[in-house]
Each structure stands twice: as structure tokens, then as C-alpha cells.
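User: For documentation purposes, I need each entry recorded in a consistent format: the amino acid sequence on its own, followed directly by the corresponding C-alpha cells. There are two entries in this batch. Please keep commentary to a minimum and don't merge the entries.

Assistant: Recorded as requested. Entry 1:
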Amino acid sequence: MRAVVTLAGDGSRMLPWTRGLRKEFLPLFGDGPSGGPTLKPVAHLVVEALAQSGVRTIGLVIRPRDRGFVRQYFTIDPALVERHLHQPERIAETRRFHATLRRLRFRLVVQPQPRGFGEAVLRARRTVGPTPFFLHAGDGVILGGRAGEILSRMGRLRARERLDAVLLVRRVADPRRYGVIEGVARPTFEGMRRLEVRSMVEKPERPPSHWAATAVYAFAPSLFGALAAVRRRQRPAELEVTDGIRYLLDHGGRIQALVLDRRFGEWRSVGSPDGFLRALALSHRIARANRAPARPP
């Protein structure tokens, strides 16, 4: 499968940071090559997870001003490694990331103005082509070390059931701030709870359930037709992925959801200051817990 990662959001909740740097490149902790906590940008963690799931082509949706920075970050830099040969421990994670980059092909997709998550995805249509794909927001990540495994499950479920989409959802106390689904229980899939999605609504005043969507999806290419139809008929100021999902459901599409619980990982977003603080603290606890035991002298 291919993947689309969105790096073009406005980032207004993270001002003034986002005047100069993208929120998707805020650092969280991940496992380093020696087993200890290592700081990595959120987008770095997302790309690693997608690579682990078997993705080989990734479309990065960006703003025009970020083209140079994003291209540089996801390009192998032999000169950087050369400058640090005398300090190999400092460059070990970069070497490992370079090995990941060698398996990947990136395509930059420009979104001139932030006109919604769905509009960003629609701009990547040519990059994806007529194939299934993962969609992953660049400002959130599944923490816990099993993100690639979860993505692979989502892809397998979509293919096995010939679904238009597989969503990853979690139970939240206050669903009014999220995209919320209403679903019917189905048999578990590879150990994860599964729901048949009947409806979805964005930030509802009266939520139909406590199941909130994370910004991780496995889609059939039918999503592009749905988004294009909504844009053509409704001409919304901002086109959301939820709009495309509702269109698919209204026109006979089949969509299921897998439930993320703490056995498999936890979803965290860095889209707000408090969200970033919680994500940073949780990622540090997880990375410390996964630290390899020290070797005896």
C-alpha cells in the first residue's frame, strides 16, 4: 500500500511556535538504537510506523513555504554522518533512519491554503493512484511500539472484507471535540475489537457514542470520488475526511473500525499545547520502560 501524510495544517493553536516551525516536527521520545529514549519529530515517528507496515511510497502534503525543510529532513544526508564519525553514538539514530529512507519513495504534494483535512487528501489523488492507501495525520502518532503492526492489521482487514475504509477509534470521555462514529459490534479481528460503522459526525453537540476517530485510516481509492463529489455539490469552505466517509456510507459503502486500547498503544496528538505536553510525557515513560537492560561490565 501507499500512504498520505498531512503536514499542511494551519497550526493556529500552537502559535507562536508555528510561525517558524511546523507542529508535525515537534519532538517526542522514541526508542533509540541503544534502547534508551531518543527525541524524534512526530512526522519521523509516523514515517517509521508506515515503513514498518510495508508502505514504500508516501505522499507528503505540505504548504509551499515548507517544501525545502520537509524535503531536506526526509533526504539521506551523507555529509551529516561524515561530520559525526568521531562521535558514532550521536549519529546512530540518524544512520538507522537513513536505512528506513532507502526503502521509501517520497512525493511532495502542495496544499496552498489550509482548506481542510479532506482537501489535503484530495490533492494527493495522483500520488496514490487507483490503489488502497493509508492516511495518517502528521501531528499525531500511536505510542507504545506497535504502530506498524496496527497499520498492517487495518490494511489486512480492509482487503479481506473489501471495505471502503477502516478507521482506528478509541473511547474518550468527552467525544464532542472529535469525529465520532456510531457502530455495531462485529467479531474481533486479530485480537482487536471491531465495529461496523453506521454513521459518523464531526464534533457533535450530542455525540451518538464515545467512539472517537484517531487520524489514522486505511482507505480504498473510492474515498477520492466521495471527497470530489462533496466538494462539487456542497462547496464547503473546508473539506473534511468525515465528509467523504459520510458520503460513502450514504451511497452504500462499507466501513469498519478497529478499537485502539492500551494493550496495543495510545493515540496522542500534538495539535495543542496541552496535547503536546501529554504526548511528550507519555512517550518518555514508554521509551524508558522499553529501555534495554544494561549489560554487565
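Entry 2:
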Amino acid sequence: MLGWTVLLIWADRKPMERKGIILITVIPVISGMVLAGVFVVYVGMARVERMIPVWVLQSVLLIFFSYSYFHTPIAED
């Protein structure tokens, strides 16, 4: 997580040029955490009620990241 945090801070320095970082954050990272949570509930390691706040937070992150990606203009050199 520290490495990913550093990567996101690096992308924050030049957000227009590095907007692709958003995609590699949303697709494997956030989506993977959502799927892991679904699996945990499916195998009975956690109750759905305990996962709802986590899923709400992950949904908010997906919405913010998606909005940012699609509303950031392509950087011009």
C-alpha cells in the first residue's frame, strides 16, 4: 500500500500527463478489493452487514476515480 500511495502522489504532481494511473488503480486494485470482499462473504468469513461500509467506500472511490479519468483532458505536449 505504501508503494501505491507513493505512485499516486507521483501521479498527482502532473495529473494531466499521468491520468493513465487512474485506470491501473481502478481496474486491478479497487476492483480486486471489491471481488475479495465478495469472496470473503461468499465463503462465510464475514457477514454482509460488516462489508457494506467497505463496499460503500469502494463505490465512492470508483465513482471519484472514474469521474476524474473521464473529465480530465488529454495532456498536450
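Summary note for entry 2:
Residues 20-42 form the longest helix (23 residues).
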